[in-house]
Design goal:
30% of the residues lie in helices and 28% in strands. It has 179 residues and is of the alpha+beta class. The strands form two sheets. The protein has a five-stranded antiparallel sheet with strand order 5-4-3-6-9. Helix 3 packs across helix 4. It starts with a strand and ends with a strand. The relative contact order is 0.26.
Length: 179
Amino acid sequence: MGYSLWLLPPKNSKIITSLISTIESLGCSFAPHVTIVSKIPLSTSIDDIKSVLTTYFSGHSLPEVYIKTLDTGSEFFKRIFLRCQKTDSLVSLARFSNQTFANNNENVDKWIEHYDPHISLIYAEEKDCNDKELINRIDHSTLIDKIWQGGKIQLVDTSGTLSEWKTVLDFDIPNSISS
């Protein structure tokens, strides 16, 4: 699968604490994140990615994440998740990242049209979990209608199995804030 570029909330923020607590209460242990782009070739230089991100954030607004709703889906990585608004700043980062890092021939406008920013709370097959029971464990008030700007970018090698995923770059976005 290659590398994936993830956007995490600012460290020490209330929202990251709530997200980590929720994910752990559902039996998982992964960093709460919005995937910006996937399928970045493993041959891409990590130093180049860091340099390009530094340049990008020096000239663009902070990506803003607004958590709208709690939803369920049928995909393993979107079993129970928080749907996020497609803010202009988040779409701008996703578009830039897709064009710069993913090296695919896909029409970027079509890709953006299908881009669905979300924060997974559990990775599971539909047959392996009781949605209602799990959703009842979630304190919606600590997650829904929450906003953050900036945070941290992680580059994650997602080429192996879930247990083999590893973070290869942590990039703190300057001037990040949460509410």
